[in-house]
Amino acid sequence: MSKPVVVRFAPSPTGPLHIGGVRTCLYNYLFARQHGGKLLFRIEDTDSQRFVPGAEQYILDSFKWLGITFDEGVSFGGEHGPYRQSERREIYKKYVQVLLDNGKAYYAFDTKAELDAAREATPNFQYDALTRGRMRNSISLGMDEAKRLIANGEPYVVRFLIEPGEDVVVNDLIRGEVKINSSILDDKVLYKSADELPTYHLANIVDDHLMEVSHVIRGEEWLPSSPLHVLLYRAFGWEAPQFAHLPLLLAPEGNGKLSKRDGDKYGFPVFPLQWNVPGTDTTYSGYRESGYLPEAVVNFLALLGWNPGNDQDIMTMDEMIKLFDLSKCSKNGAHFDIKRLLWFNHHYLQQCDEKVLCDALKAQVVANGADPKSDEYVRTVVGLMKERINLPQELWQQCNFFFAAPTAYEEKSLKKWWKPEAPQYVAELCDFLETQANWNGETLEPKVMDWIAGKGYKTGAVMNAFRVALVGEARGPQIFAITDQLGKEESLRRARKAIEVLK
Ligand code: GLU
């Protein structure tokens, strides 16, 4: 019988979570939910030098925002805790001892200076079967001497003893069989007495084993570690989990990994939430604060490295859970395409709770020193404008004329539509409109059209001149939606003012 599905997301709290890490977690989530399995949240904080305060909370907040839920782990509890590696020291010590007792690992006492000298003396030096005999360790010195040094308080590390000349096979669900020879591996440090902590490799596989992880789904950057992990599982006599190494997230152009620099260069965030770098004034922008909806980010990321094999772009979380398939993940890196994310955001903005956009627009109106008038007024403008935007931030720029009369008229629009006859058209139209008791756009439109026809004018020439007068340029939604919203008095005031100003 196959093991129940248990996957984990195991970040190191070294700063804000990169969007690539978000995708890794999303794929773990989809996989777990599809199989009715569990998703664990583990914090890999054994490298105390790189610990950043606030990072753990940031990661939790990010997934909360994105709607990705965990079943066990830091802040969620569960039967395999504690889930922070820094709180599991005693567990790792025990397993380091198991390897030492079985002769699969050994003590090493080489100082930094000694290691530097060895690297200096031998190009491409690696600590392995060929070199360990001339270094200072419990194999070259003997166990009695090693025990004596330890009793004297000499700092040491524990290294994994790698047997050379062995083929190591990693069966990867995305990449197939990855084979390497153990001779290229070095005797990795598993534990350091200095901080009484294991290194990533030991802690990672001990925890995956104890937490009953069935599938390790992680970024391609961890692929080189996996043969070592396979050997570690073997040394303990444990069954290794299934591996799946996800393709890299690439910069919009070229073959480089997507970095914060690319985001800065092209003007998009690479983090889910805004991040304030602790102890500085520096902030990194986040998708949430930049106006992206969590559904858009999730849908976009899901398709960055995987596709369901049909042409479907828009998917709910439930659909993704149903369709997700590791074997359909690409081996090749996926280019980050911000235009595509904007396209998804546009789609989800049309469906989102209008209050989100109303609040955003109201804040923009106030920030620009204008009057939002009423909630009803703002809601109508949002209804007219939302199909034209990809981000809520674009609202003010697109629809400021609903809240403030134009103070200038755009050059290009004037050139095209404010022809010598324009003032006369607009003046006559104003006189006609003045007589209209019913200002409702739907009633008004056919009347205006009849009037234009009766005069023998061209509709485009009249209505575009009128639009430029009301808006300040030739843009915006349907003109009668604008007059409706501005009201009779304001519409006529703007039109007459344009005639004055543009004389
Ligand atoms: N702590 C590693 C990271 O920061 C985990 C790698 C893994 O998933 O094994 O991504």
Detailed description of the structure:
With 503 residues, the chain is of the alpha/beta class. Among the domains are: 88-246, Glutamyl-tRNA Synthetase, domain 3, CATH 3.90.800.10; 353-402, Orthogonal Bundle (Helicase, Ruva Protein, domain 3); 411-502, Orthogonal Bundle (Arc Repressor Mutant, subunit A). Helices cover 44% and strands 11% of the residues. The protein has 20 helices and 15 strands. The chain has helices at 19-34, 55-66, 89-101, 112-121, 143-151, 200-210, 226-236, 260-266, 294-302, 317-323, 338-351, 354-367, 375-385, 395-399, 411-417, 422-434, 441-455, 459-471, 479-486, 488-501, and strands at residues 6-9, 38-41, 72-73, 105-108, 157-160, 167-172, 176-181, 189-192, 197-198, 215-219, 242-246, 249-250, 275-276, 283-284, 334-335. A four-stranded antiparallel sheet has the order 4-5-8-9. A three-stranded parallel sheet has the order 1-2-3. The chain has a two-stranded antiparallel ribbon with strand order 6-7. β2 (38-41), α2 (55-66) and β3 (72-73) form a beta-alpha-beta unit. α6 (200-210) crosses α7 and α16 (422-434) packs across α18 (459-471). The radius of gyration is 32 Å and the shape is elongated. The chain starts with 5 loop residues before the first strand and ends with a helix. 36% of the residues are buried. The mean pLDDT is 96. It binds glutamic acid. The site of glutamic acid has 7 residues, from loops.
